[in-house]
Amino acid sequence: MFPYRDNLVVGGRAWAVLALVAILLLINLPLFFVGSWHAAAMTALAFFPLRFSLHPFVESYTLVTASILHGDVFHLAGNCLFLVVFGRTLERLFGPRLLLGLFPALGIAGFLLHWAFFPDSPVPVVGSSGAIAALMGAYLPLFPEARIRMVVFFGWFWKRFTVPAWVFLPYWGSLQLISLALGSQDGVAYAVHAGSFAAGTLGAIVWKTSYPLAEERLTAFTGTSFEKA
Q1: CA neighbor of 28 nearest in space, from 83, 65, 72
Q2: On the CB side of 20, how many CA atoms lie within 13 Å of its CA?
Q3: Which of 90, 116, 125, 148 is least surrounded by Cβ atoms within 10 Å, i.e. has the fewest?
Q4: Could you report the per-residue pLDDT of 34-77, keeping only the tens digit for each?
């Protein structure tokens, strides 16, 4: 089951999101084809909880650089898909400069939560999932009534349907928490997802409740921007 877009259409193309996708592709695709490059990049730029425990200040840059690297092409493709689905509307609301400026740091809370759970782990953590989870978390309180368009596959068959953001996003976040609590060993850093999702939600709530013109901006943004689901 995959989301492929929402029904918010105001504001034209989201150039910052497209630029971020292009950057991720340009950096990662060559690494996938040259194993030695990928290994060197992982050693230098991935987030290693154990190394961070031993040398937190020296290794602090990896809290940002780890969001750039990906394990394989499927990891990269999935993250790019979710970035497009949830990043476009947030870019249209806040502007491309803010998204481009904040994106490298959006995964930090998730990496730190992963480190808190696994401070002795020598396994590297990479991927934009944390940054994208923060966008998903921010999307929830800002656009709870938006409709997320989904596709589900049944073998060779597939079905499209829509669900409200207030249904899909808590469901997705709950899966991350459950998987973390159960100690899932499938190679996914669920703590990164959960921590970043929570940080994004909190940040959006603070903006929505403290910025004087937040409600006016949201009302103007969503008032005429919905397609029929």
Answers
A1: 72
A2: 29
A3: 116
A4: 989 999 999 999 999 999 999 999 999 999 999 999 999 999 99
